[in-house]
Amino acid sequence: MKLFSLIIKLLLLAVFIVLAAFNTHLVSFSYLPGSEISLPLILLLLAFFVIGAVFGVFSMFGRLLSLRHENNRLRNEVRKNARIAQEQLQTPVPVDAAQPVSDAAPVKE
Fold first, then answer.
1. Angle at 61 between CA 9 and CA 56, to 5 degrees
2. Where do the domains of the chain lie?
3. From CA 109, how far away is CA 28, in angstroms rounded?
4. Where in this chain does the record put each Lipopolysaccharide assembly protein A domain (predicted)?
5. What's the burial of 104, exposed, middle or buried (CB within 10 Å: 0-12/13-18/19+)?
């Protein structure tokens, strides 16, 4: 599976390199009204890809923090339950509680 994943990644990298090689034409980019700059198309594509990736990471940052908080809370809960279970296993059982109750009335059929 790792080999398959590596092959797919290498193929995608090759496709992107070919696209970069063929998209070197200059394009006009208007970033403000009246302001225009000519840049290679691949540079603009790369810049907007990076900007989109940064916005994507920032948009997931809040969810990441909430998941980390929930993960820590659940780990603490598991530790607490394990400690309680360990304490219950170590407490001695009273002798009277271990013997069956014989005062109960017999069940009639």
1. 45
2. 20-91
3. 96
4. 23-80
5. exposed
Structure tokens belonging to residue 12: 């995608």
Q: What pLDDT was estimated at residue 91?
A: 72
26: its two tokens: 């200059």
Helix (H) or strand (E) holding 88: helix 41-90
The whole-angstrom separation of Cα 71 and Cα 63 is: 12
Phi-psi region of 52 (alpha: psi -120 to 50; beta: other; left: phi over 0): alpha
pLDDT tens profile 71-100: 999 999 999 999 998 888 887 666 665 566
CB 28 within 8 A of CB 37: yes
Cβ-based neighbour number of residue 41 at 10 Å: 16
Rg (CA), the chain: 33
What are residue 37's phi and psi, to 5 degrees?
-135, 145
